[in-house]
UniProtKB/TrEMBL annotation:
The lineage of its organism: Bacteria, Pseudomonadati, Bacteroidota, Bacteroidia, Bacteroidales. The keyword Transit peptide does not apply. PANTHER family: ACID PHOSPHATASE (PTHR47439:SF1), LOW MOLECULAR WEIGHT PHOSPHOTYROSINE PROTEIN PHOSPHATASE-RELATED (PTHR47439). Residues 4-153 form the Phosphotyrosine protein phosphatase I domain. Keywords: Hydrolase, Protein phosphatase. It comes from the Bacteria. InterPro entries: LMW-PTP, Ptyr_pPase, Ptyr_pPase_sf, Tyr_phospatase_low_mol_wt. Transmembrane segments: none annotated. GO terms for molecular function: protein tyrosine phosphatase activity. Belongs to the low molecular weight phosphotyrosine protein phosphatase family. This is Protein tyrosine phosphatase. The keyword Hydrolase applies. Gene3D superfamilies: 3.40.50.2300.
């Protein structure tokens, strides 16, 4: 069986998308489903290419048992061929992805992270970059909820 491939996308790939990737990977580990999925993250902009995630996000992630060690990379058009689902964090991410989609099939691969929220209500995952500690904690809360919902959706557990 071919693994389901999921790409999480935010603006710079240093806060939200690497956090979503780490959370989803931990869910896969817990559910013994790692062999059924391929997961990655990317940013619409390449400003931080090759960098570790933001140190504040790594700190808050670490407090909850997540390790963010992936390096930032920019989204590329080839990602439409490599991934079954491309999950954006906010309207700007979704618009940027849709602008790059050249076919209806590519456009159909784009999803909004908060559409998978189960118990929290949000229209987007806010960028915590310019905020304080509470912003990072809020992002992790939203992503934990949405990643659980996404897993249920793609694993057929809904």
């Amino acid at each position: 069986m071919t693994p389901v491939s999921i790409l999480f996308v935010c603006l710079g790939n240093i806060c939200r998308s690497p956090m979503a990737e780490a959370i989803f990977l931990k869910i896969l580990e817990r559910e013994h489903a790692s062999d059924r999925f391929s997961v990655d993250s990317a940013g619409l902009l390449g400003y931080h290419q090759g960098e570790l995630p933001d140190s504040r996000m790594r700190y808050h992630a670490g407090k909850r048992g997540y390790s963010l060690t992936q390096r930032s990379r920019p989204f590329s058009r080839a990602d439409f061929d490599r991934f079954d689902m491309i999950v954006g964090m906010d309207d700007q991410n979704i618009a940027g992805l849709k602008k790059q989609a050249m076919t209806l099939d590519e456009d159909a691969k784009i999803f909004r992270m908060t559409d998978f929220c189960q118990s929290l209500e949000a229209t987007h995952v806010p960028d915590p970059y310019y905020g304080g500690d509470q912003g990072f904690e809020n992002v992790i809360n939203l992503l934990e909820d949405a990643c659980e919902g996404l897993f249920k959706e793609v694993a057929g557990k809904k």
